[in-house]
Specification:
Blueprint (H helix, E strand, L loop, with lengths): L1 E2 L5 E2 L15 H4 L8 H5 L7 E4 L17 E8 L2 E8 L2 E7 L4 E5 L3
Length: about 110
Amino acid sequence: MEAAGNGIARTVIWMRRSLGKMSKRSRALGHAARKLTVPGLISGYSLGDRVAIDSQSKYSGMPHPRYRGRTGTITETRGKAYVVRIRDGNMMKNLVVPPVHLRLVGKVE
């Protein structure tokens, strides 16, 4: 309880802090780590290519920040996005990621 200036006691109620997926990450993801170019935005990937997840915070469809830097294999396409198969511990997961958030690591011949 706090005392107001006029002798009346009042209770201060604080709002609970949001703990969403972007909590405490605004500085880490606020600036693009690499500069995007037109060829980089329209480049396509083939099935079986090895890619790294490199989130660009200015664009929609960003995967969860816990997958930043993970590498995986492209298994299929869904619209303009790609399905990337990654290993998370002992479990294999499929992430649907737009190409702006991917970086090529190894090409399949």
